[in-house]
């Protein structure tokens, strides 16, 4: 009957409206991206809600389709996406808390260099006589010794990442012992992506205490295991600010911190560690909980 057809059409329109509203609400808080030629590309609103729902439900992965109907799978443990037909062709995905554009300038540290209105990222080399340079190198040498020659120290000035970090810090500052200066060794191939997009677990090889991003208490640990040399023999390590707050023992395979209480499963720890009595390694699962302040290039 005609009335039944009209009723079905109206139901579909109502359903579509509610899906769009839900997607809009989600998009206002969280946006998923994939990297294309080192640029962040937004997933559409409907894909965004599909991915976020699966992530919140603690699914291991989720499948989506592009406009041509080709199916892709997102692996949440590795934060990568690949065509279902080709599991070897992987690209990083990023989950980002959205921030007010107006907060970018207000969150900018006073000692940072001036930027043009359309700039978001600057890599600023520090002079070896600069007190800022000296302090960073002293902290590095305190852990690894002075036998490792410094090639250069650069300050990472990323407006978006810093504003997200500060917003997360304000949210977590009510908790104890929130912020720590930690170290993250890396290879040159990951450096540009970290500078532009922050720490992403798709570039992190370790997973012994969780599928997150790893930071060492002592630079010597990162130097030994993770600061791989390039063709010139140069190695790289980040000095970072990391929000660790309430932590617990990590375990292999987890992609979110455990719940603090069985009766309140939605309240999670903020990070996990290798040893709760004397941590040497912290793992975070939220990208906004770390900011890469400096990158040290050394021999």
TrEMBL record:
<feature type="domain" description="PARP catalytic">
    <location>
        <begin position="108"/>
        <end position="299"/>
    </location>
</feature>
<dbReference type="InterPro" id="IPR004170">
    <property type="entry name" value="WWE_dom"/>
</dbReference>
<protein>
    <recommendedName>
        <fullName>Poly [ADP-ribose] polymerase</fullName>
        <ecNumber>2.4.2.-</ecNumber>
    </recommendedName>
</protein>
<dbReference type="GO" id="GO:0005737">
    <property type="term" value="C:cytoplasm"/>
</dbReference>
<dbReference type="InterPro" id="IPR012317">
    <property type="entry name" value="Poly(ADP-ribose)pol_cat_dom"/>
</dbReference>
<dbReference type="InterPro" id="IPR052056">
    <property type="entry name" value="Mono-ARTD/PARP"/>
</dbReference>
<feature type="domain" description="WWE">
    <location>
        <begin position="18"/>
        <end position="96"/>
    </location>
</feature>
<dbReference type="GO" id="GO:0003950">
    <property type="term" value="F:NAD+ poly-ADP-ribosyltransferase activity"/>
</dbReference>
<dbReference type="Pfam" id="PF00644">
    <property type="entry name" value="PARP"/>
</dbReference>
<dbReference type="GO" id="GO:0005634">
    <property type="term" value="C:nucleus"/>
</dbReference>
<keyword id="KW-0808">Transferase</keyword>
<dbReference type="GO" id="GO:0010629">
    <property type="term" value="P:negative regulation of gene expression"/>
</dbReference>
<dbReference type="Pfam" id="PF02825">
    <property type="entry name" value="WWE"/>
</dbReference>
<keyword id="KW-0328">Glycosyltransferase</keyword>
<keyword id="KW-0539">Nucleus</keyword>
<dbReference type="GO" id="GO:0003714">
    <property type="term" value="F:transcription corepressor activity"/>
</dbReference>
<dbReference type="InterPro" id="IPR037197">
    <property type="entry name" value="WWE_dom_sf"/>
</dbReference>
<keyword id="KW-0520">NAD</keyword>
């Amino acid at each position: 009957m005609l009335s039944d057809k009209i009723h079905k059409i109206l139901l579909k329109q109502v359903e579509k409206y509610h899906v769009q509203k839900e997607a809009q609400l989600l998009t206002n808080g969280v946006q998923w991206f994939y990297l294309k030629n080192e640029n962040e590309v937004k997933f559409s609103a409907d894909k965004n809600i599909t991915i976020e729902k699966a992530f919140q439900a603690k699914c291991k992965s989720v499948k989506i389709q592009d406009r041509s109907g080709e199916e892709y799978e997102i692996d949440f443990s590795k934060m990568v996406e690949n065509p279902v037909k080709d599991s070897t062709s992987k690209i990083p995905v990023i989950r980002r808390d959205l921030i007010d554009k107006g907060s970018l300038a207000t969150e900018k540290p006073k000692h940072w260099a001036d930027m043009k209105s359309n700039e978001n990222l600057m890599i600023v080399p520090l002079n070896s006589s600069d007190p800022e340079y000296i302090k960073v190198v002293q902290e590095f040498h305190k852990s690894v010794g002075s036998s490792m020659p410094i090639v250069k120290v650069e300050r990472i000035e990323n407006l978006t990442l810093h504003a997200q970090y500060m917003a997360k810090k304000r949210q977590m500052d009510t908790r104890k012992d929130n912020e720590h200066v930690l170290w993250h060794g890396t290879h040159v191939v990951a450096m540009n992506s970290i500078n532009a997009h922050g720490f992403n677990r798709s570039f992190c090889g370790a997973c012994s205490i969780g599928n997150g991003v790893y930071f060492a208490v002592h630079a010597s640990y990162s130097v030994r295991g993770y600061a791989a040399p390039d063709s010139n023999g140069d190695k790289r390590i980040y000095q970072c600010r990391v929000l660790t707050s309430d932590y617990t023992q990590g375990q292999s395979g987890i992609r979110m911190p455990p719940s603090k209480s069985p009766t309140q499963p939605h309240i999670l720890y903020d990070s996990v560690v290798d040893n709760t009595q004397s941590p040497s390694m912290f793992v975070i699962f939220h990208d906004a909980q770390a900011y890469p302040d400096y990158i040290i290039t050394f021999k």
